Amino acid sequence: MTKLAELQSDFLRDCLSPRPHSKNLLLTKDIDTSQIAASGLMGIYQNSAIANIIAVMKLTYPVIETLVGEDFFRASCKKYILSHYPTSANMDDYGGEFAEFLAGFEPAKQLKYLNDVAQLEWLFHLSSRANDASSTDWALLSNVAPDDALQVKLLLAPSVKLISSAFPLDKIWQMNQENSVVNQEIDLSHHHGQTCLVIFRRGLKTEIMTVTVGEFALLSSCSKQQSLTKIIEAATSADNTISIDETIKKFIALTIISGFKTA
After folding, report:
1. DSSP three-state, residue 165
2. How many domains does the chain have?
3. Phi, psi (5° rounding) for residue 200?
4. 194 and 107, same domain (yes or no)
């Protein structure tokens, strides 16, 4: 007799089998097929399982669903699910490869911006679930010796995520929010220059903010935990008009930069 753990594993595989035929199902030998074929029995569970997973993905990727429509979204999700099995019992962990999947999904090949929009939605999802930033006593910076000041590393809050795109992701996002009052047409047939976004959470609210290329370079350098010297070099290389002091103060006030590490 099949052991319980093996039975459960076979059931999960069969539920997400792309070819639920009796000869391919692992449970065929363990279930009563005298009235209904194994493929028919597992098809009931498979439809239910896929519908439940799609419901989760609708919560994570609402903008993608709005852009492509419910039918296209469900069809693409089903294709994705059958090639990307959930590996965690926590469904908040599921869907991270959807952007990459859409980039190679033949019916969506003309919608080149979908990949970037899906990346933005996944980062928004991760930011919403991230830990809160620890409190920092910025007055302690005054204890850093002048010779060591440029070796200080500025740390981003756990919720901070960064993304840049050749498409106007900020406008696409805003236009496809519930109750949005933004009403304009965007030509997505060609590139619009670099759009730089930072996703972060303040309290219980996750926000998306458009930043300059210099600010984005500064935050990217912070995310790599580089020294203040490297942070300044990266930011001024991207934008030689940027005010480093004012930019750092702004991001500290927004709790985007949430701490520091001395040499």
Report:
1. strand
2. 2
3. -155, 165
4. no
Residue 229, domain extent: 129-263
Amino acid, single-letter form, for residue 181: V
pLDDT of residue 4: 78
Using alpha carbons only, give the angle 196, 193, 257 rounded to the nearest 5 degrees.
Answer: 15
Do 106 and 135 share a structural domain? no
Give, for 220, the enclosing helix (H) or strand (E).
Answer: helix 213-223
pLDDT at 19: 64
**129-141 in b/e burial notation, b at 16+ Cβ within 10 A?**
ebeebeeeeeeee
Structure tokens at 127: 């930011």
CA 158 to chain centre: 14
Map residue 207 onto helix, strand or coil.
Answer: strand
Q: What does DSSP say about strands 205-211 and 195-202: parallel, antiparallel, or unpaired? A: antiparallel
**Residue among 154, 174, 173 at smallest CA distance from 251:** 154
* Residue that terminates a domain, selected from 111, 140, 155: 111
Instruction: Read off the pTM.
Output: 0.86
Phi, psi (degrees; rounded to nearest 5) at 165: -150, 155
Tokens 């302690």 sit at which residue? Answer: 140
Within 8 A by CB and 6+ apart from 28, the residues are 22, 38
Nearest CA-CA partner of 93 in 121, 64, 122: 122
Considering the domain architecture, whether residues 209 and 262 belong to the same structural domain is answered as yes
Hey, which bits of 50-157 come out as E strands?
A: 153-156
pLDDT in tens, 202-220: 988 999 999 999 999 999 9
Residue 250 and residue 163 share a domain: yes
Residues 260 and 135 in one domain: yes
pLDDT digits (tens, 9 = 90+) for 9-30: 777 777 776 665 556 666 666 6
Q: Tell whether 174 and 224 lie within a shared domain.
A: yes
Query: Are 99 and 138 within one domain?
Result: no
